[in-house]
Amino acid sequence: MAAMQRLLKRTVAITNPHPRACFSSLRSSASAADNVASPPLIPPFDHQPHPYNGPSADEVFAKRKKFLGPSLFHYYQKPLNIVEGKMQYLYDESGRRYLDAFAGIVTVSCGHCHPDVLNAITEQNKLLQHATTIYLHHAIADFAEALASKMPGNLKVVYFVNSGSEANELAMMMARLYTGNLGMISLRNAYHGGSSATIGLTALNTWKYPIPEGEIHHVMNPDPYRGVFGADANSYAKDVQDHIDYGTTGNVAGFIAETIQGVGGAVELAPGYLKLVYDIVRKACGVCIADEVQTGFGRTGNHYWGFETQGVIPDIVTMAKGIGNGLPLGAVVTTPEIASVMTRKIQFNTFGGNPVCSAGGLAVLRVLDKEKRQAHCADVGSHLLERLRLLKERHDIIGNVRGRGLMVGIELVTDRKEKTPAKAETAVLFEKLRELGILVGKGGLHGNVFRIKPPMCFTKDDADFLVDALDYAISRL
Ligand SMILES: Cc1ncc(COP(=O)(O)O)c(C=O)c1O
C-alpha cells in the first residue's frame, strides 16, 4: 500500500515518451508497459544547488582529452559534467538533479558532502593538514582505535594507506613475508586493483595489462548464477585444493577474495565457501585476506563486514572507498603478529593516515553509527531487492537479481536458459536511466550487470523511483 502511494505520488502525465528500440525478441508483457505509461519522477529533495559559472561539459571534455591520459574512460555517450552533490543526489552544470545509485563507484558512504564529515575535515584543515607520522598527532591514533573497535577477533592493528590497490598490495606483501611463501590465490572475476602488483590478483581480462604478475592462481569463481557448480561450495572449494596440490609447492602465501564481488557485477559467493577455503588455505600455511573495499561499513545490511555473511574471521582485512566518503583513504587491519613483519625494514607512507583523512574517516564511522546506516541498508535493501525480484517476473531480460543491503546487481540476458549477456540492451537501458535521472553502475566481464550501490542514505522512495524507471525503460526496449 505504501509502495502504491509512493508510485501514485510520483506518476505524472507523459511529457517525454521514448521511442521504441528494436529488441523485440525479449518478452515484456503488454500489461507491464501499461503499468508504466508515464516516466516516473525523482523524489522531492530540499536542496538548492549553487549557480554554476564554470566551464561547460564540452570544454571540460576537450581539455581532459588534451591533457589527461588517453586511457581515461567515461560513462554515457554525452559525458556528464557533475558539479555538485548533496547526500544521495548529484547535480549537473544545468542544475539538473540525478539520483546517484553508484556513489562515485561505491565510495560515498554517508552521502555527498555530509555536513558532519565536511565539518570534521574543515576544522582539521584549519589546524594542520600534513606532517606525516614522524611526529605524533592524535587524529591517526583516534581513528585507528575506532576502526579496530569495529573488527572481530584479534584484528587490532591498522596500517593506513591511500587507496584500495595500495591496501591490497600491502596485504599481499604481509602475507608473503609472514608465511615465507610467494603463491597467492584469488577468484576469477575478482577486482583487487589496477596497480602493477594488484593487477595479478584481479581476474577480469578487461582490466589486465600484459606485465609480470608473480605467482598467482585464479581459482573457479563460486558464482551461484553462472558457476558450473551452482551454489555448491564444496565443489568450488575442491578446486582451491586442486590448485594447491597441482600448481604449488603445497604451501601458499595467502588467499584473497571480495565477499561480494563488486566490479565483477555484485556476485555473492556460494554460501559456506569462505569457511571451507579458509581451512584449506590455512592448512597450506597461507593467510586469508578479505577485501572489504566495497562491502564494508554496513553496506550489506545484516552485517558490518561482508566476511561476516560467510561466518569467517580473516587474518587480514583491506578497506578503502566507503571508509572515507570520498577522501583518498585506505587501510589494512590485521593481527599484531602479522603486522610485525613490516618491522623487518622501514615501512612508511607519506600521506597514509594524514590528519585530514583521519579526522574525516573518524567522522564517517560516527555518522554511520549515529544514523544507523547498517540497519537502514538492510531495510531499504530488502525493499529494493523485493521490488526488483517482482520486476524480474515481468521482464525476461532480467536474468538474475542478487546482492545484500545496498550492494545489488541486476544481470541482463537475452536468453535466460543460455544466460547470454544482453550487452547491447544494457548499454541502451543505461542511457535511458540517465535520461530519466538515475545514475547506476555497470559491471561484470561483459558489462551486462547494473550495479546499484548508492550512498547509504538512499531511501525507499529512491528505490521505488529506480525500479519504476527501469520498468519504464525496459517496457520500451
Ligand atoms: C574490491 C576492490 N578492491 C580494490 C579496489 C582498488 O581500489 P582503488 O581504486 O582505490 O585502488 C577496488 C576498486 O574498485 C575494488 O572494488
Automatic annotation (TrEMBL):
Name of protein: alanine--glyoxylate transaminase
Species assigned in the record: Clitoria ternatea
GO biological process: one example: photorespiration
Keyword Magnesium part of the UniProt annotation: no
Catalytic reactions on record: glyoxylate + L-alanine = glycine + pyruvate
Top EC category: transferase
Primary location: mitochondrion
UniProt keyword annotations, A-Z: Aminotransferase, Mitochondrion, Photorespiration, Pyridoxal phosphate, Transferase, Transit peptide
Molecular functions (GO terms): alanine-glyoxylate transaminase activity; pyridoxal phosphate binding
Sequence similarity: Belongs to the class-III pyridoxal-phosphate-dependent aminotransferase family.
EC number: 2.6.1.44
Subunit comment: Homotetramer.
Subcellular compartments: Mitochondrion
Cofactor dependency: pyridoxal 5'-phosphate
InterPro entries found in the cross-reference section: Aminotrans_3, Aminotrans_3_PPA_site, PyrdxlP-dep_Trfase, PyrdxlP-dep_Trfase_major, PyrdxlP-dep_Trfase_small
GO CC annotations, alphabetized: mitochondrion
